[in-house]
Design brief:
This protein is about 65% helix and about 0% strand. It is an all-alpha fold.
Amino acid sequence: MVRRYRRICCTFILLFVVFALSCSLVYAEEGAGGSSAASSEASASSKSPPKEAKRDPPSGNEDDWGSFYDPNNVFCGKFDCYKILGFDYETWGSDPPSLKDITKGYRSLSRRWHPDKNKAKGAREKFVAIAKAYEILTNREKRAEYDHFRDRPDEYFKKYGSSVLWSYAPKSDASIITIVFFVFASAFTYYAQKNRWQTIANHLVKAAVEDLSPREGGSKESIEIREKALAVLAERKKKAEGGQMNGTGGGENKKKKGPKMTGKERREKEWEELRPICIELVNEIDDFGAGFRKPTYKDLLVVKMVKWPYYLTRSMLWWSKYALRRLRKLELNDEEREVLTKNAVGEVTWVAVSDEEHEKMVTLELWVTDNLVEWREEQEMKLAGLSANRRKQIKKMRKRGSAEIPDEDLHFD
């Protein structure tokens, strides 16, 4: 019984193996036939002629020229170079137009839109666009770059930028800018010099009109101007009185009595009478010294710049000579003493004093710091109106340690 069962099982196994082998053979034959058919179809397709690139009929309408991101007009501007010549980039697939196709399209369109043959409005602009498209597409490198940037506007922006975001201003003429600069700068230096002169003039008028003493801000010049102004005022009053006498026929000139004026009112009246005369006299002075003079053409920046090399060279030579003399340990000569003193006290102070004061200042060796400080303290006490004895007392007090002038000595009358 057991043997019979084993025989039946072996028989079924053998039948299954035979069935499996027969099926595998059938599938193998079908696969070989399919591959041979595919190879035959491939060989047939390789022998067939290539398909021509799909091409739209040439059109002169700008609405059919497509669009492209080219804000800087590196290629065909806002239009598609292929569309301008009648090709559609989206439909030709793996068979792009050849150089022969592009040339054929260009010739057809250029003949149609040449300005000498087509007098329609905008024909010249269209002809230029067609020529530009032909130039781009017939240049291998330009065409490859154009195809690359078609779907990559970010890379176009990195290389060529975008005029949509900004645009460069037109270049300015450097010569015009330079001329305008020197004109304004020269005008500024001219009026700056005028303002310097006017500042001294206003102070001099005030000092002359109000009869300020030297310690109150007056000077020898202001005193002289006041004396001249008083003389002119007296002469004018005399002439006015003489005219009144002649007008009355030599009769008695009776003065009208009015309210009595106070001392302040009389003084203010005198100031008002003297002011215009003092202004006239001050305006006659062209140069107050120390650079405070009326402006001339020499104060223009252009003229000053011409003179700068001369003054710079002169100053360098002088100081070089001065340094060599110091290295040789020679004594200071008169010129060096005068220049050093002038630099120490300042040009304004140097010009304001007399020649005698110049000689005295040079002998004091004011280029030494301690001497300069002592001299300035002396001038401060003179300006305060202190007597010679009082100044000596204050110097002694300072040597003992008191460095300030007592308040009662700084009182101005």
